[in-house]
Amino acid sequence: MRRLAFGIVTLAILAAMPRPADAQQTVAPSGLIANNASAPVQAAGASAADPTPSTAQGTPAAPATPASSANTATSPASTPAPAPTATTSAPGDSTPAAATTTTAAAPESRPSSESWVTGNVDVGYRWVATPGGSFATYRSVVNLGSGPKLTAVDLTILQPSRRLFDSMHLRASGWGGDPYSTFHLDAKKAEIYRLNIDYRGISYFNNLPAYADPLLANGITLDEQSFDKHRRITSINLEIHPGRAFTPYVAAERDASSGTGVTVFQTGGNEYPIADTTDDATNLLRAGFRSAFRHFDATFEEGYTNFRSDQNDLTNTTSTGDNSTPVTGEKLDLTSLMQSYGIRGNSNYTKAIITSSPVSWLDVYAQAMYTVPRNTVNYQQYDAGNLVVLSELLFYNSEQYLVSSTTRFPHTTANVGWEIRPHHRVRILQSWLTDRMTNTGSATQNDTLLAAGATASSPGSTVLQTEEALNSSLTYHSSQAETNILVDAGDGLTARAGYRYVWGTANDAVLPADGLITLEQDGLRRNVEMGTLSWRPTQKLFLSGEAEVGESGGTYFRTSLYDYQRIRTMGRYSFLKHWQVSGDFRIMNNHNPLAGTSYKFITHQESVTLIYTPRSKTVSADATYEHCGYHSDIMYLVPQTLTPSDSVFTENCHRISGMFNANIKGPGKRTMTFEVGGSAVLTAGTNPTTYYQPTAKFAAPLTKNVAAFGEWRYYGFGEVFYEYQSFRAHLATVGLRYSR
Amino acid sequence: MVNPHPHRRRNLRVSGVVALFFLAGTLGAQKPTVAPKTFGDDYAGSEMCQICHEDNFNNVTHNNAHRVLDTDPRYGFQGHVCEACHGPGAKHASSGDISFIRFPSKLSAAETDKMCLNCHLNQPTHAGRIQSTHAKNAVSCPSCHKMHVNGGAQLVARKNADVNALCESCHANVKAQFEMPFHHKVPENAMKCVDCHNPHGTVRPTMTQTFAASEPGCLSCHGDKRGPFTFEHAPMKFDGCTACHEQHGSANPRMLIRSQVRQVCLECHANMPAAVPGESIAMGVVPPAIHNQNSPIYQNCTVCHQKLHGSYVDRFLLK
User: Fold this and answer.
1) Considering the entire predicted model, what is its pTM?
2) Are A1 and A232 in contact, with CB atoms under 8 Å apart?
3) What domains are defined for chain A?
């Protein structure tokens, strides 16, 4: 990917390098725009397809007024792009008028070296003071390291000749070992193509001691459930003739991850931490076309995905696992393990979208999607040691466990909707959506347990051999129908009232049955009433309120929405020219009264934001405070006794964030920028946590094109119940920005 | 009869698709032939607007997507790019009276949207518009799209930081959620809101983006959780990731909705299996008695049930 990105950037810059011929070509369009107001329209209108110039439409060409002449000088600076007329003009369009303006414009043309690339490149160096506290948690939460960094690239490349592209925007950030690095490129040539390339690499480290080690209280550190992965996500989209009647497009996406970690091999009532490597990739290739007409548009897309996932767990080190208690006097251990997952899959999908506006008072939308993912799996497991089948107290010394499985998962989604406008102040929105999926899988499991002597020459005696064929099925049918009526009552007041009905069924089964797992079946029926009022009496004031009330006759899961009320209000007011205050309040209450569940859930958030942005921008500031509350109380059955108990989770949080910005004239009348602010989170309740991120930044121009910048940031994380997971760290970055 | 060259048929098919693709492209290259629209005396023309509004004119006609209004006859406003949105401007031009011109920012959201959708209705991005909460809650197009800015790429924010700032200007509560210690990397600008949400609306709840047609957009980056698994964990398919995870940010490890894993699991897995299928109050049966919650080993269910997103091998999601 890096090579590809480098190649594209190099190619783009080389292609954009103005040659002598290009420099001459730039003269005409720049001057054309700057000196003759009617010229762009003339040139555009005088194309071969449409021979009617604008002057023929009865609109006189505007004279070159002093005002427009005055703007000539500023036009190139504010408009670095060469005028579009250069490409829209047909070859034979060189009218005498155009020739005249071209000649006149020549002296004012920009130097070719000024406009073809603009933007900035930031490079710097970051120091991270050795974090105090838990370094594993620091890496799990922040994970920024020391070293030289390419902190940001933001370039706009305009090719004067427009041979390969009109404009190219290139952005990159976080290169140089940062946990999240991005690269993005947009290139387009008007009405010819539009190309987007996006890449992001995300390091995903997670080793939270309290989460990863179930025995931490005993002083045992196993780091189970930890991993250190790197995920790379790439997408390339190419549209041909964007904006035309037919726009074909093709796209390729890749999501790949690889890394190491510590997982668990679980057998015989014991868990053994095992080094783990994973490697997976999903490739998506899709192509389609959009056809656009005056009253009708259709999009058709065909896609194909390819999936690969490999996981390998290997150990030759003897481990006693989490459970060191002997079983009937025998101490359990694992001496070697080879566990391997090989998963291969693919899918193809079809998507069709139609939008239409057959008459002025009606818009219709419809879309249908059908996809069929399939997977085949080969699993191999060879383990040795002193192991036991706990349920039968059957000891063995080696095991060979092989599984092969296949899965097929057809999934159909369809949606139809329309907007009717019976009156210019009334709109009726209606939609229907259905989502249907059926997953059918089958697995063949072959398990052979051997007694001592399990070598190639002496395989040992078979203790137990089982072969089982399982069939699984998961079916989900869901639909919803919704109607909304919106009324524009005038004076900026809009009201909406709506009703939604949601219904569906679900089945989940694995056969033959084993233990308590049997067929699970359930249904969903929900009636929802909705309403909204929004009022914008002036540009300075906006108020809105939204309410939704739902009642269910059945739901899939105990914690799903059942009988609920949701309210949201929002307001924004601008005052004293430069100040704006906004507030947001939302609350949701969900209650499942069914016997055996008794679920009560309520969450609310209140926030207020104050923004100060004077026109001079010498100083500006913004601050947000939010208070939130979260309370959940549900009855559950304690597994070992099957007695009812309450699971309660509460959280009360205060979140504050803000930034103060000052622009101060420094030596040489260069403006220096200072920013101070950050955020703080304090929560109380089930898991009291604090998280502070104060920061200070500066940027000071050194020359016309070079500026120095710096940033200090502090991270402080603490948990009352897991103090050993707390950390604090200072980060300092300094660098140079080159911009033009 | 056995085909001695089976690959030829495949090659033919591929060639056919490629040919169709480029044929469509060639067709698309043809400009539609529409009779030029004639404008009455109430229209002034873009050049007239330019005399007083030079900056806005330049911004719209230079490297701005809306310049096609001025040049492409299909839209019916050739040479009248300003009046496409602001309405006939002859009276305003002759009198200077602003009451004769239309200000989209002062119209109601519905009127503004209708004006934009005159041209943009027939685009696939609006196929989910009916479900969009933006459309229902009077959030009009100019709330996010700035028409006069210079440069086509700036018609709407493109940089991650700019997109996030735009969304946060209304969704302050979500911004606050991202300040929690465990979060998606939005504040770091490694991600942007529209990576996960389509502001125009989708078929999925909360305007979530889709992956491979209709699947949750989360799978664009978490492809290893896509499956299909031989033994599925039903909430993954029905309720999606948010059944167990706070999607924006959380004080709980791995962005879970509860601070302890067993809470997440046992709150659903607390139903005795129904005697008669179809009569259960919800899905999710209670674990067997071996799961003694007094033992730390059983307090984190994922120690053993590693494949809780779904398993290809084990019905109990152990491996």
Assistant:
1) 0.83
2) yes
3) 18-115 (no CATH), 117-140+239-253+264-739 (2.40.170)
